[in-house]
User: Fold these one by one.
Assistant:
Number 1:
Amino acid sequence: MSLSACLIWCLDLEVPFRNEGERMAELEFDDEVSRVVEEFNASPGATRRRARILETLALKPGHRVLDVGSGPGHQALELAPAVGPSGRVDGVDSAESALAIARQRCSDLANVAFHLGEASGLPLDDGTFDAAMSSQVFEYLNDIPAGLAEMHRVLKPGGRVLIHDTDWGATLWHSTDPERMARVMKIWDNHLVDPHVPRSLGKKLADAGFRNIRAEPITQVETNYDPKSVSSVLMQFIVGYVVSQGMTQDEADAWAADLRELGARGEYFFSMNEFAFIADRP
């Protein structure tokens, strides 16, 4: 499951949590979550990120490419033209509702297919793919080595893997109340398994048998408040989540209002550091 299908939002819904260990409390992917995820993926920042991932994969016509944690299918839709009618895009996700959206989004594309499955147990044959990618999925995995082993297994010799994740500890947001900001972000860290995956991903890729490992930054920087931006939609996610975890609605709303007011005064600043790790299967 990707960020699109696995982010844990409460929003305005009263939905029971699914608790998985001490770090993570998870809401099921539902229609309201789907709506906000669509808004997030349509933002200029998310669109630029997908374009960067596509460029880095360096796909060719006829390639077969895998998207692990394909969510509602935005990346798969953009991968399909790169591999052409002689190629194929396969997406795997563990959320049925995300797969339904993805299948509808790509319904006119004969070279795209989606499958229900987990990153740690891909429902695909050995040595099938020329390239495999995963965007903001591994930060949610309890067993990263198993997920990397599966991507290694389904790649052809000489195939390329791309793993994209965020280091949430490197997220910066200007606020008039730094202590409140720190409280909010500390709670937010609990929505995933490892908020600092990029710091250890290179070694894990090597341990999984990948070679020629390198990393490239993908930085989101916003100096103006825009209701359609990555950070603005992220605010909705964060407010819902921190309230669901015990912060008062008034405090969470005050946190978001402060950021919007800074935007109105021309003092807005947001930066989020993401990293794409690229490696080859020998």
Note: The chain has a mean pLDDT of 89.
Number 2:
Amino acid sequence: MINAVGCVPIGVYQWDQFETYRDKIKGLCLTKEQTNTIESNIGKDIKNNIWESKFDFLQNKECVELNNWLTHTTQDFLKEINGKTFNFGITESWAHVTRQNGYHGPHRHTWSTWSGIFYVEADKPDSGKNTFWNYYNLPQVPEYSFFNEEFYFDFVPGRLIIFPSTMLHDAKPYSGNQRIVIAYNGVCI
């Protein structure tokens, strides 16, 4: 399904095979977790109480099916919005396990073209929302409120959100005990 933040297309897809692989993916994240550690060494000052893996997470053998689905789904999304086929490749991927009061401040992924966030599990799905902001930098006046609002998508296990990598986004503070997501960046090759 394609949504839009302002005029920007956002893909929202549900993996129909998620239940088959859920335990394997969740188990891998929890086994690799190093509490409150940013293994990527990127943006440490805007992250709190999060484990972030190195940027090769989808290369784990437990993630082959997920990696294939994410790649093909992103490629299909790009074809749908552009009307032509692109060969999309994931260049970086990582997992986040967010613990109570954890968050990830506003940021962009500037070295890729498309990014995705895949929701694995959250004991409080209404907390810690990923928020996206419109690209347009317009004055804060009432008649422009539709441009300046925050947008978010509900946390549903097995859901993928695809967005332009340079779109400003964050993860709000999480009030639950455990929230697991897998994210990626990629380019058309």
Note: The chain has one domain: 9-188.
